[in-house]
């Protein structure tokens, strides 16, 4: 608990987003009195553009920010999505099984700040942020409740924003944000009726491309490493609940300034990430400059992802580049997966080059992989009918297996691997002996 207090203290001292000194008791009392009399909101809310909204279900707070297009967030201009949004359709198809065409004005970019981490009924979204496009702008709106009695009014307003939207654009929203909201709708008296919105959840494409090349696939990591977004000082999402509870405790809106800024940036990043994947699927995101700078592993994952989503021409261009990289000796582990792809496609000559290179790398490795030697043994035995070469690779695979056996903790796996190789070597020796007779 002391560590949490220290982190909160540092955030208050270092905050670069509308820094406000903590309210004194007299100021807090006057602000609470102003609210009770229906007067203006406390200055701590008004200075960041928050206003009080009323509807048929009650009151809540709303902050609205308009970004006139063009507006650049990191590497991309958010206005680029106006042209490339339709290219996101394959993502929507895979995530929803069926999906209507993507219309940018029917996308709602959603991110919630909640009182906890689970999706159970005790987790309350105290702030719901979302963004949407108009002809000339990208609009971000953020709703906030000051107490549980305002939740229904906030959700009523959200439903109004959702009524003409076809897809929710999120980062882990399919398994977190949306289930949390569904629970709150039910608890506030709504029942499911009609079709739910579709999802475009960018956590899954991000993991497909970057799970082996980035330290993590957290949104903050992805945006900095791949979107060129530098947040500088930022309130971590994990601290948002504690800051909200501090606000509930003393009524000082300054505690929430960093939460507002963090949520706003998350929504802008969702739009920027949409541009990234839209351009990639449209064949414009795989630029020569970006390709040359990318690691082989990431290129391979990107090519596979594009192939799965129907962008065959761009995928083939990346696969061809990967093959050239391997011939130059720049590739490593992913080359076996690329060779397997060529093998399935009947392109054995291309696979052969990759297996040979991987075999060379394996023989110099501390923990060698056997796959390339086994593939070469099968190729020379069954396709090229060069039994001596097949036997040579099989015997080398057995030697490598014995070398790395000391490093494998799974005794069952070691035994099965060795028995399989012994059987292959024995069969090939028998074939060679019979051929020589």
UniProtKB/TrEMBL annotation:
Feature: compositional bias, Low complexity: 23-37
Source organism superkingdom: Bacteria
GO MF, one example: nucleic acid binding
Basic and acidic residues: bias regions: 1-13
InterPro entries xref list: RNaseH-like_sf, RNaseH_sf, TPR-like_helical_dom_sf, YprB_RNase_H-like_dom
UniProt region (Disordered), positions on chain: 1-37
Residues annotated as domain YprB ribonuclease H-like: 108-275
Record's signal peptide: none
Protein name (Swiss-Prot/TrEMBL): YprB ribonuclease H-like domain-containing protein
